[in-house]
Amino acid sequence: MTSREQFEAWLRAQPHVLNVGVEQDGTYTLHEDRVAWEAWQASREAVELDIDWPEANDDTWKDGEEGAYAMGHEDGKDKVIIAVRKAIRAAGIKVKGE
To answer: Is the whole-model pTM more than 0.70?
Structure first.
């Protein structure tokens, strides 16, 4: 779902909104909807994540049943996931599924 689709879904869910009118050029019919869309866009642009990336480790290549793989890959992947989720939460954004 695009940001605009999310916005329109949110807008339609508001109790005072009866209809969301969109002109042929893509602008919203009502001034209030245009202002709300501009605020929505500005709020998305203001999101900035500062991710504390984990340091790379020295992987050792091994032969597994399905070919070669790097030991430590899963550990590194988990550390990256943790770092990204931590940055997302610090920015006040919910992590889907948590």
So the answer is: no
Structure tokens of 35? Answer: 């202002």
Show the DSSP H helices in 25-69 as ranges: 31-45
Q: What are phi and psi of 63, to 5 degrees?
A: -95, 120
Among positive and negative, which fits the CA dihedral 28, 29, 33, 34? positive
Closest CA to 50 of 87, 81, 77: 87
Per-residue pLDDT of the chain (98 residues; tens, 9 = 90+): 788 998 999 999 999 888 899 999 999 999 999 999 999 999 888 788 777 776 655 555 555 555 555 556 666 777 888 888 888 888 778 777 77
- Rounded alpha-carbon distances, angstroms, from residue 40 to 4, 10, 73: 9, 10, 38
User: Do 32 and 21 meet the contact criterion of CB atoms below 8 Å apart?
Assistant: no
Distance CA(21)–CA(26), nearest Å, equals: 10
